[in-house]
Amino acid sequence: MRIDPARLIDAIADCMIENMQELTELDAAIGDADHGLNMRKGGEALRADMAAFKAASLPQALQLAGNILATTVGGAAGPLYGSLLMTMGKSIGPDPDLGEVGKALVAGVEAMERLGKVEAGQKTMLDVWKPVSRLVAREGATVQSVRALAHEAAVATIPMEARRGRASYLGERSRGHMDPGARSSELLILAVIDALEFEQ
Amino acid sequence: MTDLVGIVIVSHSIDIAKGINDMVRQIAGSELKVAFCGGTADGRLGTNMKSVQDAIDAAWSPAGVVILVDLGSAEINSELAIDMLPAERRGSVVVCNAPIVEGAVVAATEAKSGSPLADVKRAAEELSPQ
Ligand SMILES: [Mg+2]
Hints:
The structure holds two protein chains of two kinds.
Chain A lengths: L4 H14 L1 H11 L4 H14 L1 H5 L3 H15 L4 H15 L6 H19 L9 H12 L5 H13 L24 H16 L5
Chain B lengths: L5 E6 L2 H15 L5 E5 L10 H11 L5 E5 L2 H12 L3 H4 L2 E4 L3 H13 L4 H9 L5
Helix pairs in contact in B: 1-5, 2-3, 5-6
The structure holds magnesium ion.
């Protein structure tokens, strides 16, 4: 498995910029309608630092990207995605195998979980990252199975009642809508998979 | 003279943060350090870890700092800002689980009288519904 840090960050930035409309609409339904714009701002900030990413190792690139997202995104998604990437960057080597990626992802998701004081089933981005990180860390997980799980996990937030974040003020009325953070997580996971070159 | 616990106010809105800061200043006197922040880096509603870090620096005291927050991301950005502090400061900065306006005023009153960090936090948190 070969990971080009600049290509990876570029894919993340594109994903954050291109999906503004859909994420805005999802957040407008059960939140404050800022998730799309927040993500776009983060993607633009990553793009603005592309020269630094081209010169960076994978651990450096992930830590820098995490720091940029934590300081530019605004909203809970910024520090949560920021801590995910910063922790992954601290937990990974410059040329990781899939096992090492899985371990770093699990560590990153645990950091995000602690920071957000969030549990699975509360209709948040953790409902996507938790099962996906477990699957990636399991030996023999296929690209197809990770893609499918990311999608299923985002869809599974639709019937949930929100327990964290702005949507939790809606209580029961938050049911029937996909969590915007879960959807952006799914989109990012798919974008990252597309950007990576897998040596089977 | 004993060091007083510093106060940081973090709101999604810089106007709210500034207004609370004004109220706290009325009672804080000159020796209590108070700092506030609000809004995203580009001036929209939201919060931003960097501005919380700057506010912690501005309110820094050897006695520690309490942070009062409004909604979700204000707390999460504050917790992340604390995580990123140098190790020797990390244990001396805490987020209060308290209503932001009353919490800030009560914390400032308590801090001004020279109470230690834990007491300032407790005083603010006694305002929260149990
Ligand atoms: Mg939002």
